[in-house]
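Q: A reviewer asked whether we had any structural model of the full assembly, not just the individual parts. We don't, so I'm hoping you can provide one. Inputs are below.
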Amino acid sequence: MEWEIVIGLEIHAQLATQSKIFSGSSTAYGAEPNTQANLVDLAMPGVLPVLNKKAVEFGVKLGLALDAEIGKRSVFARKNYFYPDLPKGYQISQFELPIVGKGHLDIELEDGTVKRIGITRAHLEEDAGKSVHEGFVSQSGIDLNRASTPLLEIVSEPDIRSAKEAVAYVKKLHSLVRYLGICDGNMQEGSFRCDVNVSVHKPNTPFGTRVEIKNLNSFRFIERAINYEVQRQIDLNLEGKKDQIVQETVLFDPDKGETRSMRSKEDANDYRYFPDPDLLPVMVTDAEIEAIRATLPELPDTKKARFISEYGLSTYDAGLLVQSRDEAEYFETVAKSTGDAKLAANWMNGEVAARLNRAELEFEQLPIKADDLVGLLKRIQDNTISNKIAKDVFEAMWNGEGTADSIIEVKGLVQITDTGAIEAIIDEIIAANPKQVAEYRSGKDKMFGFFVGQAMKASKGKANPATLNDLLKQKLAG
Amino acid sequence: MAAITIDEVKKVANLARLAVSDENACEYASSLSNILVLADQLEAIDTQGIIPMANPHDAIQRLREDTVTETNHRDEYQQIAPEVEDGLYLVPQVID
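A: Here is a predicted structure for the entire assembly that you could use as a starting point for your response.
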């Protein structure tokens, strides 16, 4: 019998507020150490945390997008543990009464089927500071700029059954928080962090002991770390060393491609939560919830369905285009201005995506504006250039050489549609290749491609392909 | 009623990084147990349907607008720190 993999995820999304969750310090990334840590963040005696309104709003926003119960009365609790980058000795979090309760998120699997993943809860909490261990002898340096930055911890049910499903879930949630504008999703800077709980068991037997993999900061690492950890656990089971799988936290080492033990969870599990007396219960009224609901943008699933019905796109194309809100808006601009949604989708999911991929850039970093891509596609539509030449023009646009029209003009790429000019080229080729002409005329149809190639070469790729084909057929027929 | 043992006192002290001597641990165990005796009186009360109190004040949390109101006072704050370097607070080494 096969092993069943059971995965649950905890995702920490840093909320895109200007100030911290409990103080008026800035949350901007990359500042000089401790220049954004005030008396509240430093945990000086006598200070009081005051909750950021935006953080509550963002929590509710996500809850609504996950079709979840909204905690109309949520309570902050102290999660006690000792670590120097947590100067209070406790993290203010939510325990029994979080801002977001049970909800769900639908993910699409590779075969196109939709799977519903349960969301257990999402709660507001503050981030800790950062410890710097390098460069010090028997000391650590502490930077509290990140301390008290607002986080939303989103906890899934253990509904995920493979590394691929886990990645699909993380990508979907990543896309969702960015649609909502509640998190910038920057995984490199730690704005969107992933902890994965993994266990293996045989179907219809109790769940195995779970191991938590911490702080995975790329989609690729998530998949690799899960696959490694699953194999490790299966191997231990097969070797009869099941008792060596202990409930612990491990770190993934991307260089070695393996997980290693970080700390035993026994101690860490005893967080001695209790309601934080410095904070009162947070109440959210129905009217406030409805006001927030009214600000929700069109979400990826709805947008995807609309792209399919309104623009006649395939599920696959639509799915790719709605991954980011910017990309979806870009597509709509191009589709509307060119009046050809299929052409727009083909270019965006083809040339544009491939070029971004090659440059290892995100869609948001695309150097070509929607209106400029429209300029290029219009020249394909009016037969000024062929699709093939358009790719060269696109590359030039990418390199900042100008608009499609200026590049076409400067490089002399205007397509030859004049039948006389194309006929002249064909006549020359027929005259220069009598052997091939004879072969073609004796029934070797495959030779046709040879003539197309020669003619295209002679026209420097500028001959209109359809016209060339027609004329070539006529001329070769003799 | 559940009495607090000396081991439990030591465990909690360790979690909070408090140095508690054996002598004190014994005393704390009995003091803490007495507090529990007091709290145990609540067991006699029917709490069915009562929402657990999160705060003794009958009020709700006031919210702050999301604006940055603080400026950098690092140099002043770090004057009372035992040791700093390159803007970082230095602490005894912590290893995961």
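A: Points you may want to mention in the reply: The interface with chain A takes residues 11-12, 15-17, 52, 54-55, 57, 59-70, 72-74, 77-78, 83, 85-96 of chain B (CB under 8 Å). The first strand of chain B starts at residue 63 and ends at 64.
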